[in-house]
Each structure stands twice: as structure tokens, then as C-alpha cells.
Design a protein that fits this description.
It is a single chain. This protein has two domains: 55 residues, no CATH class; 77 residues, Alpha-Beta Plaits. Helix content is 33%, strand content 19%. It is built from five helices and six strands; from the N terminus they run αββααββαββα. The strands form two sheets. The protein has a four-stranded antiparallel β-sheet with strand order 3-4-6-5. The longest helix has 13 residues. The chain is flat.
Length: 159
């Protein structure tokens, strides 16, 4: 069976919109089967067999994969738990379950923490790691370094 056919059976149909899933998220729009067809055409899905055959003649392996993904945007569809920790070195560490994907997450967290706490901050790094002190389902943490003024302000909390 064509893997696209399986997905089309399981996609939300336009007539079902707005659609509420099992965990209460509402999808207000989507042309899922149409987008699959469009992507298949742009990727020359039907030309795959010829490309695979040509690759095999060159001693190369050639494969393809298919996936569907919905990313929510805007609104308050989700909330993300974070925790902040002040260290003896004068750092504020923000632990979060969100994963940086090149969309400015580090900058956003830095700005939010800086504004909320009223301290100047610059982002040190964001690393993907699981830790016992992160919020549930945590996959990433952002380490934020405080300025010297912030260090003096937070020092009593870290001793």
C-alpha cells in the first residue's frame, strides 16, 4: 500500500474542521491531504523508482521517507513550564522542556527573564539535556549569565 494512502485515511478531513483532538487541542484549519499531494508533486514522488535505479547502477543506496507534522502557531494553545536557578557563580539557569529550533528561543527566554527579574542578562548557551531538576518532559535548558550587578543582587540566594 502506498504510504500516502495510509496518511490520507488518517488525516483530518476539511469537513471535520474545526476539529478537537483527544487532548482538547482545536485545529481550526488545514488542508492536509492537499498539502501531501502538493509535496509529493514537488518532490517528484512518482519519479523515485527511476532515481533509485540510477543510484543503484552507481553503487549507491537511495531511499525516501514520508512524515506529516503539525506545528501550532500563535495564541495560547500551549504553556511551557520553566524553572530558574541561581548559582554560586552568579548565573541564572533557566531549565525548559522546549527545544531550540533556530526560531530565536534563546533570545526570547533571555528577554523574558531579564524583563521579569529586572536584571541585565546575556545568553550563555542552550544545550539539550535531561536533568532531574528540569520541569517534566524537559529536553533542553538555557544557561543565562548575569552581569556583575545581578551577581551582587542574587548572591544572598546562592549562599
Amino acid at each position: 500500500m502506498d504510504p500516502r494512502a495510509i496518511r490520507k485515511v488518517n488525516y483530518i478531513k476539511p469537513a471535520q474542521l474545526p476539529y478537537t483532538n483527544a487532548v482538547g487541542q482545536v485545529y481550526d484549519s488545514g488542508a492536509f491531504a492537499h498539502m501531501l499531494e502538493r509535496a509529493s508533486k514537488l518532490a517528484d514522488w512518482d519519479g523515485f523508482a527511476a532515481r533509485k535505479k540510477a543510484a543503484k547502477k552507481k553503487g549507491l543506496l537511495y531511499g525516501r521517507g514520508l512524515t506529516s507534522y503539525i506545528e501550532w502557531t500563535g495564541g495560547r494553545a500551549h504553556t511551557e513550564k520553566v524553572s530558574l536557578h541561581a548559582t554560586a557563580e552568579g548565573r541564572i539557569i533557566l531549565h525548559s522542556g522546549t527545544q531550540a529550533m533556530g526560531q530565536g528561543l534563546q533570545t526570547t527566554y533571555t528577554q523574558m527573564v531579564s524583563e521579569s527579574l529586572g536584571i541585565p542578562m546575556d545568553m550563555d548557551r542552550m544545550s539539550c539535556r535531561a536533568t532531574r531538576i528540569s520541569p517534566p518532559a524537559s529536553a533542553a535548558s538555557a544557561r543565562v549569565r548575569c552581569s556583575s550587578a545581578a551577581r551582587r543582587r542574587w548572591y544572598p540566594l546562592t549562599t
